[in-house]
Amino acid sequence: MILCVSNKDLYKCRKDLIDMIQDYRNLFSLEGKHALVTGGAQGLGLSIAEAFCAAGAVGTIADINEESVNAAAKELCDQGGTVYAVTCDVSNEEQVAAMVRTAAEKMGGLDVMVANAGVSTRAPAEEMTLEQWNRVIDIDLKGVFLCAREAGRYMLANGGGSIINMSSIIGIVGNTTGNSNYAAAKGGVSSLTKVMAVEWAQRGIRVNAIAPAQTATKLIEGLMRDNPATRKYFEEHIPMGRLGKPCEIASAAVFLAADATSFVTGQTIAVDGGVTCAF
């Protein structure tokens, strides 16, 4: 059978295909979006901010260290991004409220919030002090709640948005030692994410979390250089046989921030090389 297609039909098919491709490109773009990333002066936070800038967003990075966050913002601006810096202790309610307000004013809005700031202090459960416990819970769980709550308040009043909380595989599986405080905080983040997602699902806000496995940030790379057994342990317990790359976690953040995931909420996305599949 011979199918005859006119030039007009070919042009229309080609135009439809081009329009469809452009639609999908737009779905994964962050052009016109305003994003705030806590813990943005280094590590995963800085990588996420870099990825947001590359995807077209205007950004604000927040960190407790003023010198570091100013230097990181300058670096991102030198790379061609539009990025502002804010100093904030995410465990402090007043500072978090001021951070969200300032970021929204500087950027002209707030569409994406990444509650990434976190700390870790290790000790076997029987030796862990209340000070160690409280420090991690205050920053990694209470801090995430405060950031998500304040961003949520702004978004509820301004048309919605996407909130991304930083969880961890350590909040999902128990293959770790000395991390009872961190595991409790990150498990709490994943549960908090579900509740906020349900509460705000019909009010224009999506809430999701990312749960990375061990990732080769500068901090982790330094630990592995000092103790090669640490690298061996990580690689043996990750089915892919390697650590994650910061850009791989950042890509998940771009995915959750973009309109492409407009029907995704309440999820904790494990970016873990298969760790959670093995338990």
Description of the structure:
With 279 residues, the protein is α/β, with parallel strands linked by helices. It is 51% helix and 14% strand. The protein starts with 6 loop residues before the first helix and ends in an 8-residue tail after the last strand. The mean pLDDT is 93.
List keywords for this structure.
single chain; 279 residues; alpha/beta; 51% helix; globular
List the helices and strands and how they pair.
Layout: H1 7-27, E1 34-38, H2 43-54, E2 58-63, H3 66-78, E3 83-87, H4 93-107, E4 112-115, H5 130-157, E5 161-166, H6 180-200, E6 205-212, H7 218-226, H8 228-237, H9 246-257, E7 268-271
Parallel strand pairs: 1-2, 1-4, 2-3, 4-5, 5-6, 6-7
Helix pairs in contact: 2-9, 4-5, 5-6, 7-8
The biggest beta sheet, please? Answer: 7 strands, parallel
Determine the number of helices (DSSP H or I, runs of at least 4 residues): 9
Q: Specify the structural class.
A: alpha/beta
Dominant shape: globular
Radius of gyration using CA atoms only? 21 Å
Helix content: 40-55%
> How many β-strand runs?
7
Task: State the order of secondary-structure elements, H for helix, E for strand.
Answer: HEHEHEHEHEHEHHHE
Strand order of the largest sheet: 3-2-1-4-5-6-7
Distance between the termini: 55 Å
Q: Uncertain segments of ≥5 residues (pLDDT<50)?
A: none
* Mean residue pLDDT: 93
Strand content: 5-15%
